[in-house]
Structure formats: C-alpha cells, structure tokens
Design brief:
By secondary structure, the protein is α/β, with parallel strands linked by helices. It is 32% helix and 15% strand.
Length: 398
C-alpha cells in the first residue's frame, strides 16, 4: 500500500509559519548536553525542506516526564543548542510554549527563522489532550506538520487535539518514512518473513504477535516475554518474569501456531538481580529450557543463540523488536548482541524498532547495516499491532 497521506511537499509553505511536532526526547549526558543526536538528525529532512522553501518554522517537542511541572533539567535549551550546531543557523529557543511572549516572538519571524518552543509537558494539559492548550499552540502558525511518528500513538494536545484547528494536517518526511516502511510489512513482506521478538513483557508485544501471525512464517521468541510461553508448555521458570493474566492468550497462540513459534532451548540464569544497582548473583547456563527454583532467566543461552541465528538463514524479511536479555548489564547482553549482528549481516530486508532495540544497535554501531531502524518504541508496536493511532488518524488523505 502506497503512503496516501498529505506530506509537507503537498502544501504551499512559502512565506508561511509552519508548526512542526518533532520528537526531540533525546538522552542527555550528566552535564545536560545531548548524548545522542539521532532524533534531531532524523528530523532534519523536514526542517531543511521547510527552510529551503521559504518558511519560518516553529518546532515543538517534549523531553522526559516532568508531569505538568517545570523541571529545570528537562528544559530543551541544550537540545536547541545542538540543533543550532547541526543546522548551522540560529535557533531561537523560547522559555515557554504558549502565551503572549511566545506569540510576540513568533509574530516577528521571517522566512528562514527557526524557533524551538519549551518542553510541552511542562503543562499537564499536553498529556490530557486539552483543547484549549491545543488552540493556543495552533495560534502560532499557518500550517501544522506532524513529523513525530514516535509520539503519534499518544492522544496528546500537540498530536491530536491540535489538528482540529487546521484545514489540512501534513506528515513530515520522517513520518512518511516510518509509516511507509512499516506498512510494507503489514501488506506485503518479502518471504520468508521472520520476526525476532523479545523484551520484558508479553503484554506489550502480544498484539504484534497476534496481528502478524498470518503474515509471518516464523517467530523467534526470547527475553522476558518468553517465560510465559515456557510456563504454558509445562516448563519451570523459577523467579523469571511472568504475567499470569496472559496465560489464556498465550495458550491459544501455542495451540494454533506452534509450527511457527521457536522458543529458547537454554538460558543464562542468576539467583539475584538488581538492575538499578547493576548487581547480580551467581551465573550459570541451563541445560535445557527449564529454570530451577530460586533462579531467574536473564539472557538466552548458547544453544538458543545458535538455533535462532540458524533460523534467520534464507529469510526474505526480518523484523526485530525487543532485547533477548537484561541488556543494561553487559554480561546478560550476549544473546542480544549476537542476534543483532546476525540480523544486521543478513541479506534479507531488515527492520528494527523499539527503544532498547535501538540502544543495542547503536551500542554495536551497526545501524547502517539495517534497511530501517525505527525511531519509535510504543508507536512502532501499536502500528504493527494494527491499532489506530491518534496522530495518524488526523493526517489528511491525499
């Protein structure tokens, strides 16, 4: 299916003020500087297009979770400085995102000017999808563009309610790229289509598995979400994570699709784990998929790594979402790192998405080997799970 939404290219922006929802929720270093430029760089095609075509632009984003209060460490000031360095032009960083002072600055903008509003989430109204807050944001511009695919699963004021104030809602180039790439998976993935899926909780991934079960040829399931599958099959999982309420769903999936599902055959386990303190107890590898009492799974084992990588051979398309172990601790990131490299080196079409998945790829410096690495975590999952997303619903059809 072709991307059928209006994009910034379809709108006359010359001499106009363009309000662009971006995702500049970047990781920060201890000194407050931007630790990773990727989200800023991914927004550049849309920003540069608007500037090259005679628009003045107003960028809006959130940063962190200030929960409706001004948190000094979550101001977008350092993000603005980094954007200024990358763009090579002045970025006017404001200390608020609505109000008379903001409107006064925006009124005086000339073509080529760039404004970055303050953190949207300093106002609780943003996450409440408040219509009055959205109206105040909308007064800043002639045209609204959503280039924040990664926040488009949220019914927030800058994503959803704001659309009512514009005749047309256009997508930016990052939005177009993300939706176009992921939509190909949903409609016509190259075969065989292999999904490697991990992460801590089955509750966040079950929708993707169910929605893509008919389209996929094989699921390689590891990480914390795999333990419920093992439990349903009568294996022992010790102290490993277990979401009991999903047992009926997992049982049905296994009964109907066991030929498509490959689970771990062994695990790296420990008898004590504190992720926040980076502490763990004794480590050993199970001989099979059973985890003894008093122990918990923290990574896929060597037999599983060998089997999973072998199953990637001959794939036409590989979708990877979620780590296969507790990657915050290097000793438990072995399976994830091995799988990441195997997927990256595959001649198949390779697509990866999710926050921790992206972290693993960046850590190994192999993003350039993937056909597409999504900037989105939750949004990617909801899109692949077939859910309607507030930020996509409001985009204008061509």
């Amino acid at each position: 299916m072709a991307f059928n939404k209006l994009t910034i290219k379809d709108v006359d922006i010359t001499g106009k003020k363009v309000l662009i929802r971006v995702d500049f929720n970047t990781p920060l270093s201890p000194d407050g500087s931007v630790a990773d430029n990727r989200k800023i760089e991914e927004s550049l095609p849309t920003i540069n297009y608007a500037l090259d075509n005679g628009a003045s632009i107003i960028l809006m984003s959130h940063l962190g979770r200030p929960r409706g209060k001004v948190v000094e460490e979550m101001r977008l000031t350092m993000v603005g400085k980094r954007l200024e360095e990358i763009l090579g032009r002045k970025v006017i960083k404001l200390d608020d995102c609505i109000g008379p002072d903001v409107e006064s600055v925006v009124d005086d903008l000339k073509p080529g000017d760039v404004v970055l509003l303050e953190n949207l989430r300093f106002y609780s109204e943003e996450e409440k999808n408040d219509p009055e807050f959205a109206a105040k944001l909308s007064r800043l511009a002639d045209i609204y563009v959503n280039d924040g695919f990664s926040v488009s699963h949220r019914a927030h004021a800058s994503v959803s309610a704001i659309a009512k104030h514009f005749d047309m809602v256009a997508a930016g180039f990052l939005m177009e790229k993300e939706m176009g790439c992921l939509d190909k998976i949903l409609t016509n993935p190259p075969k065989p289509f292999v999904i490697a899926i991990g992460g801590s909780k089955v509750s966040t991934k079950i929708g993707v598995i169910e929605h893509l079960m008919e389209k996929a040829d094989l699921f390689l399931i590891g990480g914390g979400m795999s333990y419920i599958f093992q439990k349903v099959l009568g294996k022992t999982i010790g102290l490993s994570i277990f979401e009991e309420s999903y047992v009926p769903v997992v049982k049905k999936l296994l009964e109907e699709n066991m030929d498509k599902i490959v689970l771990s055959m062994d695990y790296t386990i420990t008898n004590m784990l504190s992720v926040s303190d980076r502490k763990y107890g004794n480590i050993q590898t199970t001989v099979d998929e059973n985890i003894p009492d008093g122990w918990m799974g923290v990574d896929i084992g060597p037999k599983t790594i060998e089997e999973f990588t072998k199953r990637l051979n001959g794939a036409g398309c590989i979708l990877w979402n979620g780590p296969f172990g507790v990657i915050e601790i290097p000793e438990f990131a072995v399976g994830t790192n091995r799988m990441a490299c195997a997927i990256a080196d595959s001649p198949a079409i390779t697509i990866a998405g999710g926050g921790e998945t992206d972290e693993a790829i960046d850590h190994l410096n192999i993003a350039h080997k993937f056909n597409h690495v999504s900037t989105a975590g939750g949004a990617c999952l909801e899109f692949l799970g077939g859910k309607e997303m507030p930020g996509l619903i409001v985009l204008t059809n061509k």
